[in-house]
Amino acid sequence: MTIRILGIETSCDETAISVVEDGVHILSNVIASQFEIHAQYGGIYPEMASRAHIKAIVPVAKQALCQAHLGWQDLTAIAVTYGPGLPGSLLTGLNFAKGAALSCDLPLIPVNHLEGHLYAHWLQTGVAGAADGRLEFPLLALIVSGGHTELILMREHGNYEYLGGTLDDAAGEAFDKVARMLELGYPGGPAIEESAQQGNPRAFNLPRAWLPGTYDFSFSGLKTAVLRTLKRQLGPRSPRQTADMAASFQASVVEVLAEKTIQAAQEYETSAILLSGGVSANMALRRAARARTSVPVYALPPVLCTDNGAMIAAAGTWRYQAGVRADWELDIEPGLSWA
Ligand code: KG4
Ligand code: ZN
Description:
Helix content: 40-55%
Radius of gyration: 20 Å
Strand order of the largest sheet: 3-2-1-4-5
Shape: globular
Bound molecules: 5'-O-[(R)-(carboxyoxy)(hydroxy)phosphoryl]adenosine, zinc ion
Strand content: 15-25%
CATH architecture of the largest domain: 2-Layer Sandwich
Number of domains: 2
Number of helices: 11
CATH superfamily of the largest domain: ATPase, nucleotide binding domain
Structural class: alpha/beta
CATH topology of the largest domain: Nucleotidyltransferase, domain 5
Number of strands: 10
Order of helices and strands: EEEHHEHEHEEEHHHHEHEHH
Distance between the termini: 30 Å
């Protein structure tokens, strides 16, 4: 029997709803971004985010069903992110999901947002360098986004081991903060990557926090080093200096992420490496990882790197098949981690 799951994602600043068939075929993938709201503040403003979700969620759900040429009665279940994330944002998605599931008499499947980022790799994209579901366990995943930097060993469906993560800033947060220092705009990742293309990655000697013997990361020292270097520069910064700093910063982040990911993949003898999350859209990161190993390094099209409903529907499909169902008392878990 065909399984059609509606995936609802509102953990941060995207109202995203998608319909996925059998965990692999994307029938629709609608994303209402709050980019313009948060760009004014240079970061995410939680109350604004919840309010924007409330306004967007019904139209986004209708559009997701319309694009899939389906009605509520054609769905098998509803999957929803219940954590981790911003409390007000998560509540909007979960309440909507409960209402829809109750009124349409559909099962409700709870999904961990981070698990969603992994299951994006089971979606069939047909894009070069994507896994398209051709995956064998064990797998090593690097999740790098605005809120997370984690290395996860995936032994089976639903079987995860947290190997390490950031002790301070997430990688994407560091990109966003340094972009602000360089006045490159928000979100910082794509702006830094673009500027870095014109710069010399060896122009500034920035630190790399290796934290030997662990799979942990730290980016706050790097951020402070960038700030100190910029303060020492006299006079207005030239476009060349901005590009050199963007390139040097990006090289420092990418080198540590790629090196530690490859080390973990070797130690645990994984069959492939999965790059997930907004920062995995960075081409320098993909190149650095692929240059260091013969193990396949899979990455996703940009729309599946950042937050989306399809990844929640994909993770929800596996959970549905495993018999997982939420009860009506399901609450949000803003600090949810790996089970
Ligand atoms: O996964 P995501 O949409 O949201 C979270 O769950 O946090 O990731 C957003 C983050 C932002 O910090 C953004 O600057 C970063 O991903 N990002 C990038 C690139 N594209 C997005 N960082 C580096 N290079 C990129 N090309
Ligand atoms: Zn995310």
